[in-house]
Amino acid sequence: MNTIIDFIHTNRDRYIDELKAYLAIPSISALPEHAADVRRCAEWTAEEMRRVGLDHVQLYETPGNPIVCGEWLKAEGAPTILFYGHYDVQPVDPIELWESPPFEAMVRSGEIYARGAADDKGQVFMHLKAIEAHLRQTSRLPVNMKIILEGEEEVGSESLDAFIRDRRDELSADVVVISDSPMFDRGVPSICYGLRGLTYFQIDLRGTASDLHSGSFGGAVANPAFVLSQVLAQMKDRGGRVKVPGFYDAVRPLRDEERAEFKKLPFNEKHYRTELGAPKLFGERDYTTLERVWARPTFEVNGLQSGFTGDGAKTVIPATATAKVSMRLVPDQEPDTIAKQFEDYLRKVTPKTVALTITRMHGGRPWMTEFDNPYVQAAARAVERGFGQQPVFNREGGSIPVVATFQEVLDLPSVLFGIGLPDENAHAPNERLDLGNFHNGIIASAYLYDEIGRLTGHAATAESGGG
Amino acid sequence: MNTIIDFIHTNRDRYIDELKAYLAIPSISALPEHAADVRRCAEWTAEEMRRVGLDHVQLYETPGNPIVCGEWLKAEGAPTILFYGHYDVQPVDPIELWESPPFEAMVRSGEIYARGAADDKGQVFMHLKAIEAHLRQTSRLPVNMKIILEGEEEVGSESLDAFIRDRRDELSADVVVISDSPMFDRGVPSICYGLRGLTYFQIDLRGTASDLHSGSFGGAVANPAFVLSQVLAQMKDRGGRVKVPGFYDAVRPLRDEERAEFKKLPFNEKHYRTELGAPKLFGERDYTTLERVWARPTFEVNGLQSGFTGDGAKTVIPATATAKVSMRLVPDQEPDTIAKQFEDYLRKVTPKTVALTITRMHGGRPWMTEFDNPYVQAAARAVERGFGQQPVFNREGGSIPVVATFQEVLDLPSVLFGIGLPDENAHAPNERLDLGNFHNGIIASAYLYDEIGRLTGHAATAESGGG
Fold first, then answer.
1. What are the pLDDT digits (tens) for B248-301?
2. Is position A153 annotated as part of the catalytic site?
């Protein structure tokens, strides 16, 4: 590995110049006027993959943007990594808040500023440079690699799911590697081993055919805005515990090792509360804030709408009341089971004075690879090599739907090895990437392939899998 | 009275022609482009008042539209009626739904169609024609009359309150007569003896400085949309009874006579429910629907707004949640007392996880003149003469702020003697007035002055007054 690491150190500046060229392409998938840029970016990505020495690089057309694939499969007997990333980026509005043009990458104070720097071009490029270093110096990789880079991640990955399902066999591998998330904090490299799932609903209550005058009719009929409040209030108790029967049945309890790991993290409750601007932190008793956010399911009201909401006063009894609600799920809660339990309970607690319509919006499975999984442990060793310190093991409260898809369709564990920082403005003006983390990340990626290459293929999967 | 009634019968068609001229003036107070029409209407009204024989008719300028006053004060020893009405009308949009132009009054099937026919020009004109009949036939009125007609009723009567307070002495009288409300139903002439009051609030809860991602932060903080639901749910119990401590303390119980009177009314619960399109009627136990709407206080949620309310799903924890809420009040609830009780209770039940802001929007006192009040009974006899049947005594669930003002500032009882019908589209396209009711209303008004004239002034007020 030494010659590989030397090569990486020697080429440090070249990597930054090349990354600037990648970041110059405004591959904004959300804006139709950038469709040509998105395609140009796919082609640039493919060309770069060929340059670093990957085989069979090609663009696959989809109903949306092309998916770029490549591979290197000559490490006989070694495990296969399926590497996933995306080459599309978020829009840049409000453009006036950018300190330098979003598609003219500039280095300031050791950080490179540009849209896509952290999310996700910088992290994809880190892997391409690690692959390049291996192939230039040894003409081989220590693992087999399959690479799949999509151009619709920022608009819901609509084409990806079918693509994966249609190519179940071609995409067979031993482990998925994704670098599209932040580390826990600056100076705290981390490996994420769990994500929450989701089930999301719209609830519509109708009381009457049209809005009524609250003077003429107040007292005659139920008020759907009030009934909605009554109904929602029954979803959680005062302590923040969800009251939907059966909701916690499948929740995998936090292991002592996990709780101990979380406790080690540099987390300041007071600072966190102040940053959020909250009068108090609040949630289920007997769990710390990080445990609640990462490893406990929730019920949230995401939106409320009913009646008169303008300035001033209007004495109306609303005809309808609508709520958007969702539940974050943890392993081993099944979204369909929870959705059914929720719908049954909702029907039960909604009085007959209103007509109830439940719309199931979308959902996603929670995901977890236990952190003693051999691939996760291999990644931890690689990160330690790259960053000079042991990574922490964390979970995330959000979802990355593709992770659940890889688990569900391909039955693969994932290693989430991200080198962004939580404050690098992934979806905001002045997105940036710390170039120290970028450089260390290339080294860690090079070691990651080496560490995974040392594992016996397939056998390593025994402990993988989540909910 | 016979010559007077003969005169009214003889002039039936002339009244309709004159009313058409009155209805032709588009005195829409809500639209600045009709300001000149509003003034023209005030002048037309004043001219008509002079024509029928009233004295000292003049326009009083206000910061808004002129108030037209006139009087006839030569019935020495007799009581004084303060007659209130308004000459402004509602806008006409959506104009395309009108079957004939709103300011070209047309008679179809015994009804006159025009904006203002029922609300309130037709009912004002009915009184002017009754006054005219008395003065033409006998050169006198059996009562003293003070008339006050405003031009801002449809936009909140902003100038009226100060006008009344400034002229407390000039407006002294024994009873207020208002004809600006519907009768209970077609063929059911009625006298309204009670109105509900109101106290209205906006409630704002803030959880965090900005909206949060429900994945990254769900479980860390209280969700203000959920907290709002919890808080609102504590305002009423399952049976529809308001839980604000002290809320019912001042409520004047329904008298057996009132309940008996309400039971006589032709009211079909099933038809009412079907018309509203409600799955069920609902409200406080042990009260009928009419009792609940007319004589019981309520708590209503008038609006809800929080977080994401567009199409689709957005996984947000809202930073804020807002509700508009109001309580309808009945005698002898005081809006200020109830407002304070509500605010205290709201502060008590709102958890410290959110910041609470309460904004008191507006309020109005409930009003009631017991229906055995001599003026109310005089009006009942007059209606029986005009319509050939005894009127029913009803209350209304809404408010007419001016009634509370007359009670509060002038300490006068009011007689609400309306001849509109509930389905005459007072604020909607195709407003109309039944010409049979108009004609009978002129006769009833003529008798009303006679009946009140027979009462001894001042002494008759002994039983007046409400909450």
1. 999 999 999 999 999 999 999 999 999 999 999 999 999 999 999 999 999 999
2. yes
B320 shares its domain with B227: yes
Span B207-239, pLDDT tens digits: 999 999 999 999 999 999 999 999 999 999 999
CB B411 within 8 Å of CB B403: no
Residue A156: the pLDDT is: 83
pTM of the model: 0.87
- Tell me the residue range of the domain where A147 lies: 2-195+366-463
Asked if residue B436 and residue B354 are part of one domain, the reply reads no
Q: With an 8 Å Cβ cutoff, is A343 touching chain B? A: no
Q: Does residue A420 sit within a domain?
A: yes
Question: For residue B36, what is the domain's CATH number?
Answer: 3.40.630.10
Chain position carrying tokens 């018309």: B275
Structure tokens at A26: 């405004």
Q: Which among B293, B317, B355 is the nearest to A300, CB-wise?
A: B317
Q: Which candidate, B6, B316, B466, places its Cα nearest to that of A323?
A: B316
A residues 168-207 near B, CB within 8 Å? 196, 198, 200, 202, 207
Q: Is A281 on the interface with B (CB under 8 A)?
A: yes
CB contact under 8 Å between B328 and A214, yes or no, is yes
* Confidence band of B327 (pLDDT split at 50, 70, 90): very high
Q: What is the mean pLDDT of the segment spanning A158-181?
A: 95
Residue B463 has pLDDT above 70, yes or no: no
Q: Does a structural domain hold residue A355?
A: yes
Domain boundary among B327, B342, B364: B364
Cβ distance B304 to A309 less than 8 Å, yes or no, reads yes
> Is residue B208 classed as helix, strand or coil in its secondary structure?
coil
Residue in B with minimal Cα distance to A287: B219
From the list A276, A277, A303, which residue is nearest B306 (CB)?
A: A303
A173 and A214 fall within a common domain: no
pLDDT of residue A460: 47
Token representation of residue B118: 């029922």
The answer to whether residue B440 is domain-embedded is: yes
- Residue A341 belongs to a domain with what CATH number? 3.30.70.360
Which candidate in B153, B396, B434, B450 is catalytic?
B153
Q: Tell me, yes or no, whether B86 and B159 share the same domain.
A: yes
d(C-alpha B276, C-alpha B92), whole Å: 24
Q: Would you state the structure tokens that stand for residue B456, as one six-digit string?
A: 């001894």
Contact B222 A196 (CB under 8 A): no
The answer to the question of residue B279 being in a domain is no
Same domain, B310 and B339: yes
Measure the CA–CA gap between A454 and B112, rounded to whole angstroms. Answer: 95
Concerning whether B88 is annotated as a catalytic residue, the answer is: yes
Domain boundary residue among B364, B381, B415? B364
Report CA B255 to chain centroid distance, whole Å: 23
Bridge partner residues of A433 (DSSP):
A112
Nearest 5°: CA angle at B352, between B229 and B212?
A: 65
A234 backbone dihedrals φ, ψ, rounded to 5°: -85, 0
Q: What is the pLDDT of residue A461?
A: 46
If asked whether residues A205 and A347 sit together in one domain, one would say: yes
Same domain? For A409 and A303 the reply is no
Q: Give which of B49, B140, B34 is closest to B89, Cα–Cα.
A: B34
8 Å CB contact between A328 and B214:
yes
A213 phi, psi to nearest 5 deg: -70, 125
B241 shares its domain with B315: yes
Of A239, A301, A277, A279, which Cα lies nearest the Cα of B355?
A: A279
Integer Cα distance of A314 and A127 in angstroms = 59
Distance, CA of A321 to CA of A327 (rounded, Å): 20
Show residues of chain B in contact with A215, CB under 8 Å: 196, 198, 328, 396-399
ipTM for the predicted complex:
0.88
- Cα–Cα distance for residue pair B223/B234, rounded to 1 Å: 17
Work out the percent of chain A whose per-residue pLDDT is above 70. 98
Average pLDDT over residues A86-96: 93
